[in-house]
Amino acid sequence: MVRTVGMICLPLLLGVGLAVAVAISFSSRDARTALEARARQTVALLAGGVGDALWNVDRVAAQAILRPLSEDPDFVGALIIESGGSVFLRLGDAGPSRSGLIVEQVSLIRPAAGGQAGEPGGGQRIGQLQLCLTTARAEQIINSRAWAIALSGLGLLAAVCGLLAVIVRGVTLPIRQMTDGMAVLAAGRVDLEIPRVDRRDEVGRMAAALGTLKQHAAERLEFIEQQARHMEVIEEIVAKRTEELSAALETLKRAQNELIRSEKLAALGGMVAAIAHEINTPIGNGLTVATTLSEKISEFQAILEGKELRRSVIRDYSGSFGTASQLLVGNLLRASELIGRFKRVAVDQTGELRRRFELDVVCGEVVAMLRPTYRHSPVSLDLHLPAGVVMDSFPGALGQVLTNLMTNAMIHAFADATVAGTITIAAVLEGDGRHVTLTVADDGAGIPAAVLPRIFDPFFTTKLGSGGSGLGLHIVYAIVMRVLGGVVAVESQIGQGTRFTMVLPLVAPQQSEQDAAEEAVAMPS
Q1: Most CB within 10 Å of its CB: which of 120, 276, 289, 369?
Q2: Cβ atoms of 32 and 135 closer than 8 Å
Q3: What pLDDT was estimated at residue 507?
């Protein structure tokens, strides 16, 4: 409390001292100014008479003129000096100027014809009048007033300090105690003593409100503790449920990976079956030709042994051997070409190797591997692929995308195997020279608008129970986005077909070891 009162009263004390100093300064200045003005007026009034007395060398008259000044309580002395510098008359102590004195001088002029001495129109200077006044009386009055002001200020300061002490003791101190109590309550503690104020004013009401606040805080703290105990129980339950859900999610992930593996192997198996059927034709023809050639060779050997060899017979058998060899070589070359294509596609799709390749070549090989699947279907394949588009990417992943899209079109767009249609694969090199737009479009049944937003979701299929796994387009989306580093979009209208548009970078993004491991899990070989 003393510190508070001191902090408030000290500025007031400084203010009172400053006010007294300012009052003394201004009063001293005003008093000195008034004395200087009175001295100027006095010497101006006496200059005429004193000038006549000096001119007439009448010291008695001059003394009579200056004697009334001695009655002035501020008068110190007066001095009349002749023009030669000698003192004509001295009254009082008109010595050298010292502190606390006001010295006023005026020149005495000889009266001119028709004029009076001391007038501005006079002629010759005959001497000088000097008047000395003291400021002691004025300073004494000022000091007494200053003491009065200081005593009044000190009395007012004492009254203010007493009032502040009463206010601090009766108002500020209880409010501070209650403020400290509110800070303790805000910190979450309720073990504080509320100051008891038996008053009916605002302070008493604040003390009562603080007591109510303490009670509510205690109740709220107890409620929070109960909720905390409940939350601990809930957290234990949630932890158990989370562990169970994590295990279930891990099981689902493994099942999804197995389904993806099965989907990919099924697609590869279908390709194997189709290419095996395609290879069977040239190999069967080659076997037939080889068997016929073997029989012809046996017949020719028998003719040679019978010694009935004629030139016409040799010519016939030579022609047969040439034709058979041409047919055999042609069928074997066809089989070798099919096997080579299948080998490249199979290696790309099972190895997930990154390499440089030409887009039209890889797409052509994938379509060539799938073409036997559509041999007995009225659906035709149309390619519009520019030559010379070189990519540094994953040809196997790209082939998987094309395989899934074309298979999806056959299952959904051309479900009616008797309806003719076209699957178009086209590519356009973008203007920036770093991306290519690859489209796979069909003119089949189309996709309903309600289904279109969900076609890339895993396990979503409209052929559930009819051979659809719901993973084909999900694999397409995952490969395009995560492996090839591109984007994929779909447009479709009922009865007008579907178009899948993929914007792929010519240089696929680099994958870290962790990404490669995750990709290997997501797309098992």
Answers
A1: 369
A2: yes
A3: 93
